[in-house]
Amino acid sequence: MQHKVVIVGSGPAGYTAAIYLGRAGLDPVMVTGALTPGGQLVNTTEVENFPGFPKGIMGPELMDNMRAQAKRFGTEFIADDVVAIEAVEPATDGQDSARPSYRLNLSDGDVLQTEAVIIATGSNFRKLGVPGEQELSGHGVSYCATCDGFFFRDKPIVVVGGGDSAFEEALFLTRFGSSVTLIHRRDEFRASQIMVDRAKQNPKLRLLTNTVVTEVHGTETAPATAPAAPALNLGGLSLTPKPQVNVSSVSLKNTVTGEESELETAAVFVAIGHTPATDFAADVVTRDSDGYITVDGASTRTTAAGIFAAGDCVDRVYRQAISAAGMGCRAALDAQAYLND
């Protein structure tokens, strides 16, 4: 079956594109991802900076709402991953307007054929890979200062990283935290000198070099239930509620002396970079040296006719849900114009 347009990836960019394309009558198909549809926001707790929700909204709920809105306008969802995109050259039938179509190979072996593609697969935070990081993600471990800094007002904060992004996050977090400690594994920073100078001039910010985080620790901050914690029975499966556990400290190791120590903190912000999820499209679109898809100016047009890209797989600067949603809108309008040409 030949589809008009297939969206690869969910999240704010993908769902917004689907809403616009569905309302345009283009019957979009969305390949959401096999494991975590909804992008990074499904792992976020409260979102307070998305317009229209004055009291905030939980990240998973926001994504569920977007999905329901896309479904309302006829989006078909496929819970799978795209492993490769192949260009299919048009038949030589003498028509000058003939355009290539695209074959999307899915991880389960299925194949989708489409006239246009919107890539909205986002990017993945690079992680420390230390004990406690995954378990305390969303409970003090964060990858976005703009999203979560407010929750740690008047509390000690740790930032891990040595580039401009890490310094930007650390300086931003000094607005909230009682103190901010930026930890870097080397004695020299990758950040620009002006960022380092600003950090050194900020009395709330301490720079800790030649140091790595080896473990993130948590402390129980609330019981499972009060006064008791009875097991929940779901279809014969008993689940015992777990107590609330939040970050309380990190274990550190000096990379030169090997000395180990522990630092109390209420939050660990990891800022060691992002990896855009674009490898599957490497054969059809142009990417920069870091793997971000390149687009034409302010548009979402890639170097391949009929393929558009939106969200964090393109945007290395803002990486916000609202900016991704706006780019998803632009991708849908660009795709619509392409299909109607």
Automatic annotation (TrEMBL):
<keyword id="KW-1015">Disulfide bond</keyword>
<protein>
    <submittedName>
        <fullName>Thioredoxin-disulfide reductase</fullName>
        <ecNumber>1.8.1.9</ecNumber>
    </submittedName>
</protein>
<keyword id="KW-0285">Flavoprotein</keyword>
<dbReference type="InterPro" id="IPR008255">
    <property type="entry name" value="Pyr_nucl-diS_OxRdtase_2_AS"/>
</dbReference>
<feature type="domain" description="FAD/NAD(P)-binding">
    <location>
        <begin position="4"/>
        <end position="328"/>
    </location>
</feature>
<dbReference type="InterPro" id="IPR050097">
    <property type="entry name" value="Ferredoxin-NADP_redctase_2"/>
</dbReference>
<dbReference type="InterPro" id="IPR023753">
    <property type="entry name" value="FAD/NAD-binding_dom"/>
</dbReference>
<keyword id="KW-0560">Oxidoreductase</keyword>
<dbReference type="GO" id="GO:0004791">
    <property type="term" value="F:thioredoxin-disulfide reductase (NADPH) activity"/>
</dbReference>
<dbReference type="Pfam" id="PF07992">
    <property type="entry name" value="Pyr_redox_2"/>
</dbReference>
<keyword id="KW-0274">FAD</keyword>
<keyword id="KW-0676">Redox-active center</keyword>
<dbReference type="InterPro" id="IPR036188">
    <property type="entry name" value="FAD/NAD-bd_sf"/>
</dbReference>
